[in-house]
């Protein structure tokens, strides 16, 4: 693996390259460091932060301040991967000016390389404005969690011809507006393959089959760290939650039984401090 930092230009040029693009979410510096050292191409500071880290029921309540706090941590833990900051609900819908003001904060304050935002044709003014202002943008269409309510819940998108045509039109509009890549979520694999062939920028699938230019997963899902629910499209590569609980139970037992800490975990000195004890405590 080449240790050179992945830029937006490199990412864009990975389309049609010799390997599919790998992308994972990250929310803090220590996990970002592990994923980066493992060689992932891109780290998305997703607004899934709200559900997997902050304990909200959806991504809707996530604020700019929360996103910037975690995006800065991921940036500090990352040397190679492209770092993408996810624009939270309400941070880019009001006006192009609002989108630029918030998008630039991801680059200036958190050190992200670029941002991602959800939506198709309806967000293209914001995408154009951001790109003109120097903020590279990744689009996100298909199942868009911030507006899942409008889509009838967390459901597969693009199931009939009309919906499929709209998704392709959205992808083309995002490309024309200057997006350097598009996340495509919960879309039938044959449709995702067609969109990938029709669009010149990388299409990163999540629940969109193997025909995309790359794949993204929520790290806490693929490592088995988030137990509340697991979407059908997730493959669990590790199951860390039971290991963590076992380790914590061992710690509790050893603390209760006086086994931890042992002598090797403490600091010995030559001084005899026993004179500090009051006589009745000796
Ligand atoms: O917020 C997120 O984690 C995402 C991924 C599901 C792509 O947008």
UniProtKB/TrEMBL annotation:
Binding positions for 3-methyl-2-oxobutanoate per the UniProt entry: 47-48, 86, 116
GO cellular component: cytoplasm
Extent of the signal sequence: none
SUPFAM superfamilies for the chain: Phosphoenolpyruvate/pyruvate domain (SSF51621)
UniProt key word Transmembrane: no
UniProt cofactor note: Binds 1 Mg(2+) ion per subunit.
One Pfam family linked to the record: Pantoate_transf
Entry keyword Nucleotide-binding: no
Active-site residues, Swiss-Prot/TrEMBL: 185 (proton acceptor)
Listed GO biological process terms: methylation; pantothenate biosynthetic process
Entry EC no(s): 2.1.2.11
Function per UniProt: Catalyzes the reversible reaction in which hydroxymethyl group from 5,10-methylenetetrahydrofolate is transferred onto alpha-ketoisovalerate to form ketopantoate.
Family to which this protein belongs: Belongs to the PanB family.
Name of protein: 3-methyl-2-oxobutanoate hydroxymethyltransferase
Organism: Candidatus Electrothrix communis
Gene: panB
């Amino acid at each position: 693996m080449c240790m050179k930092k992945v830029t937006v230009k490199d990412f864009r040029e990975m389309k049609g390259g010799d390997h599919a693009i790998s992308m994972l979410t990250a929310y803090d510096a220590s996990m970002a460091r592990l994923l980066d050292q493992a060689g992932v191409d891109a780290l998305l500071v997703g607004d899934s932060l709200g559900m997997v880290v902050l304990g909200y029921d959806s991504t809707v309540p996530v604020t700019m301040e929360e996103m910037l706090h975690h995006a800065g941590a991921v940036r500090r833990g990352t040397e190679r991967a492209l770092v993408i900051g996810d624009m939270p609900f309400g941070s880019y819908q009001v006006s192009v000016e609002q989108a630029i003001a918030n998008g630039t904060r991801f680059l200036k304050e958190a050190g992200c390389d670029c941002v991602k935002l959800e939506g198709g044709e309806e967000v293209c003014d914001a995408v154009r404005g951001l790109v003109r202002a120097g903020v590279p943008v990744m689009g996100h269409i298909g199942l868009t969690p911030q507006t899942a309510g409008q889509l009838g819940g967390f459901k597969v998108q693009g199931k009939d011809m009309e919906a499929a045509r709209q998704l392709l039109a959205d992808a083309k509009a995002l490309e024309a507006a200057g997006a350097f890549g598009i996340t495509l979520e919960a879309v039938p694999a044959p449709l995702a393959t067609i969109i990938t062939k029709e669009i010149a920028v990388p299409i990163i699938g999540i629940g969109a089959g193997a025909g995309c230019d790359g794949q993204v997963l929520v790290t806490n899902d693929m490592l088995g760290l988030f137990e509340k629910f697991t979407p059908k499209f997730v493959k669990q590569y590790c199951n860390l939650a039971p290991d963590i609980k076992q380790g914590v139970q061992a710690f509790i037992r050893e603390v209760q039984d006086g086994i931890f800490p042992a002598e090797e975990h403490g600091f010995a000195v030559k001084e005899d401090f026993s004179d500090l004890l009051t006589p009745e405590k000796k």
